[in-house]
Amino acid sequence: MIKIAPSILSANFSRIGDQIAAVEAAGADYLHVDVMDGQFVPALTWGPKVVEDLRQLSNLPFDCHLMIAHPERQVDAFCTAGAGLITFHLEASDHAQGLLARIRSKGVKAGVALCPQTPVAMLEDLIDDCDLLLIMSVNPGLGGQAFIPRAMEKLREARALIEKRNPACELEVDGGIGSSNLCDVVAAGANVLVMGTAIFADADPGGTLRRLRSLL
Ligand code: DX5
Ligand code: ZN
Predict the structure, then answer these.
(1) What is the mean pLDDT of residues 54-74?
(2) Could you read off the pLDDT of 68-85 as tens digits, one per residue?
(3) For residue 4, which ligand has an atom nearest its CA?
């Protein structure tokens, strides 16, 4: 089944409880939580305290996407805060295999994200240790950007690698996904779709999510 992971980066935080409840009631599968540190990416968002507090608002698994330098310094805090899945950037980690193993040892699912510049081939020796691969279809750091077309081919490459080596691994795509391309990314092999602007820019995020799901 195709999973939808609304990204709260585009949510209205003055009404975050309502916004999360709306997408949860509409059948969201994960809540995508973008963590930015002002270093790996220019923008800043939130840390484990906010994740811990939001955790009380929802039963959805939190899909924490760490766009941070030195993720090894932070993953334990995000595990404790209640993350269901932690994805860090290959570009930010010198010892990705060890970090994946460490996250999994805490009972949390572990994923690796690739920026648009990083080839799927870089995952050859990591795929066995991953619960999820995240292909970025924009440069990380901002919501509302346009989908980079080359990501479609990278999804096909990643799907082929997963089928060959670790079929249980999920394949997530993040950035510029909406009604115009969600069927195409699924056809290319993605099974988890992150959507921020497409869901939360609308006054009715629950209804929007249902509409997007009906296109699949
Ligand atoms: C971007 C983030 C995304 C962002 C996607 O760096 O990783 O999760 O929320 O936003 P949209 O769906 O608006 O491209
Ligand atoms: Zn993200």
Answers:
(1) 98
(2) 999 999 999 999 999 999
(3) 1
Structural domains present in the chain: 3-215 (3.20.20.70)
Place of tokens 């249902």: 210
Q: Is the CB of 9 under 6 A from ligand 1?
A: yes
Q: In what order do the strands lie in the sheet with 132-136?
A: 3-6, 192-195, 170-174, 132-136, 109-114, 85-89, 62-67, 31-36
State the distance from the centre of ligand 2 to the C-alpha of 63, rounded, in angstroms.
9
Residue 143 near ligand 1, beta carbon < 6 Å: yes
From residue 160, how far is each of 100, 131, 138, 167, 171 by CA, in Å?
Answer: 21, 16, 21, 9, 11
Q: Which tokens in the block code for residue 71?
A: 């993720």
Where residue 116 falls (left for φ over 0; alpha for ψ -120 to 50; beta otherwise) is alpha
At position 57, the amino acid (one-letter code) is L
Please give the structure tokens belonging to residue 125. Answer: 């020796």
* pLDDT tens, position by position, 181-201: 999 999 999 999 999 999 999
Cβ of 176 below 6 Å from ligand 1: yes
What's the token pair of residue 149? 């077309």
Q: What share of the chain is helix, strand, coil (3-state, %, to 5)?
A: 40, 20, 40
Catalytic residue among 29, 63, 131, 174: 174
Tokens standing for 73? 């310094």
Q: Is 31 helix (H, G, I), strand (E, B) or coil?
A: strand
Ligand 1 atom index nearest CA of 176:
14
Q: Distance (Å, rounded) from C-alpha 70 to C-alpha 67?
A: 10
